[in-house]
Amino acid sequence: MDNSKQPQGQGEVKNLEFLLDIPLQISVEVGRSRILIKELLEMQEGTVVELDKLAGEPLDVYVNSRLIARGEAVLVNEKFGIRLTDVVSPAERIENLG
């Protein structure tokens, strides 16, 4: 009897375990804006840049430049964080890889 065979599915999990320690870059986008170089050069302390999102709209959460969720800003122990309110489905995340 061959004891090296694992129940179906267990081998697949083991094959993916090496991926769990790969570091990823997470970023949160508050909004975007397009400006002219002239406007960029005129910026100084106190300059306000208007963004394309309204106050209270969900923030976009990106992992390696791919949208994976939306959420709201929170304050935890005097540090900013984000509470996820909408997570892109795994199928959509895979679809967006290409």
From TrEMBL:
GO cellular-component term (any): plasma membrane
Source species, domain of life: Bacteria
Main location: membrane
Any one GO BP annotation for this protein: bacterial-type flagellum-dependent cell motility
Membrane-related topology note: Peripheral membrane protein
Localization: Cell membrane
Keywords assigned: Cell membrane, Cell projection, Chemotaxis, Cilium, Flagellar rotation, Flagellum, Membrane
Molecular-function GO term, any one: cytoskeletal motor activity
Flagellar motor switch protein FliN-like C-terminal domain residues: 19-88
Entry-linked InterPro entries: FliN, FliN-like_C, FliN/MopA/SpaO, FliN_T3SS_HrcQb, SpoA-like_sf
Keyword 4Fe-4S: no
UniProt record similarity statement: Belongs to the FliN/MopA/SpaO family.
NCBIfam families, alphabetized: fliN
Descriptive protein name: Flagellar motor switch protein FliN
Encoding gene per record: fliN
